[in-house]
Amino acid sequence: MRKLSEATWFSNAFAVCSGIWGKITELAAENQCSRQTAYRQAAIAREALDRRRDPRYEDVLAQKDILAQENCELWRAFADSFQFPECRRVEFAARATAMGISLSQIQELLAVVMGTAQAPSRSQVGRWVQEVARKAGEILKTLDQVTRTLAVCVCLDEIFFRRDPVLVVVEPNSMAWLAGERTADRSGTTWHRVLRPFQNVEMAVSDAGTGLQKGLRDWNEERQKAGVPTVQASLDVFHTDKEAQPVLAANWKKAEGLWEKAEACDRKVAQCEQQGRDARRAACAARCAWQTAQNAFHAAEAEDAVWDRAKTAFSLFLPDGTLNTEASARKELQAIGNLLPGDRWAKVCRMLEDPRALTFLKRMQEQIELAEPNAPLRAELLRLKWLRAKFRDPQNDAARLTSLIAVQETICYKLCPDWKTSYECVAQVLQTTVRASSAVECMNSVIRMHQARHRNLTQPLLDLKRLYWNTRRFRAGKRKGASPYMLLGLKLPELDFWRLLNIGPATLAQQLST
Fold first, then answer.
1. Chain centroid, CA 360 distance in Å
2. Which DSSP helix (H) or strand (E) runs through 312?
3. Could you tell me which of 149, 144, 98, 156 has the C-alpha nearest to residue 439?
4. How far apart are the C-alpha atoms of 197 and 250, rounded to whole Å?
5. Which one of 33, 46, 85, 198 is separated from 371 by 20 to 30 angstroms, measured CA to CA?
6. Who's near 249: CB < 8 A, 6+ residues apart?
7. Are 178 and 170 in contact, with CB atoms under 8 Å apart?
8. What is the pTM of this model?
């Protein structure tokens, strides 16, 4: 059936309503329609006009204006709203999980942003995170092949999830988390397998754990057979000090107990005098008690002073500003061991006498000699570095140190006009000298926070958190503005966490090879 235009409708209705004889027949022929169609269109037009005369029609028009205004406001709000498609929700869940937020908390945050009706369920968030964690493991397999060859010094330790150990390897200067493997045990064989990919490592700092040390020995034997330089094993200074603190605390606890007993004897003397009884026996007991308490306090102070000497022996500089050496530190530690007798200090003395306790000093001396072969200039540069370090301490006299630094810079200039270049090399060696595995202890603290938020930290979740940690930029401190991978020396055009996850292992391997 042919449809007529609106203009034809109106002309037919006008012809019917006008009453002009023959007009209807003329228009019907012109528009190619019947006269009945024209009469029907005229009836529809009269009905529409009658509706306009209805008082309710004004209400309809007013409602139309209100709806049009609401429609404009809705479009304006939509233009100002942000887009949150599913890919962005998955990224939100992945980053939040890597930061240590639990699945229930992520689901609650998404409900705030999207509304309860549109928010995904907790199980859906869990599936997103599992898929992203699986991708993170694949990406890390490719990245580890390169990053583990960039590490020269590593810190090693274990952390336990329930009964399963996680073997952690951290590069201390960049804080790059290079290994976090959840294993069934922490035996030497397991540690050997974890350490084998680190081909260019020259020094490993760790505690004296049996399995860890056996793994290091097996690794060195394998490297020696292959004709590769062995890794220098250094005992962690932090754990040595940690072993000494309970002994020192026990000394003070004993002294405080004896002090309280002496005070009790004094109260007994006062009570006897108040009651008029003979107080000579009580006074004699009080004098003996105070003498014992004073001796205990003096002994605690003496052992504290001896341990302060031990901590000085582990420092990079001696109190007079000269560089500490392995020979001088060894001699000092032997003297300290003779001043700490008894079974209480037996374990600590064994750790002090261990040759690995001073490996860092030996390595530091070798690197400084390579950085500046000229011995007189090297000594003056080291003294300048020591003075500048003391200047940063607010307790020292700043004015005096400023003058000393100016004089020392003049001495360095006379020895070598280009002394600043040599100074930067020497300062870099001192800055990168690692005495303790505090870097891996910091990483363990981060992992413990995640462990408290999640019911179970699986290996894929550990991979997700490790990739996020290595790609996020530090917000403060000397590493501000750089990520661990950047500080480690990894060369990639893009080191963003989410883009690395979506780039794919094959494309990533191609970028790493170019």
1. 25
2. helix 280-313
3. 156
4. 44
5. 198
6. none
7. yes
8. 0.76
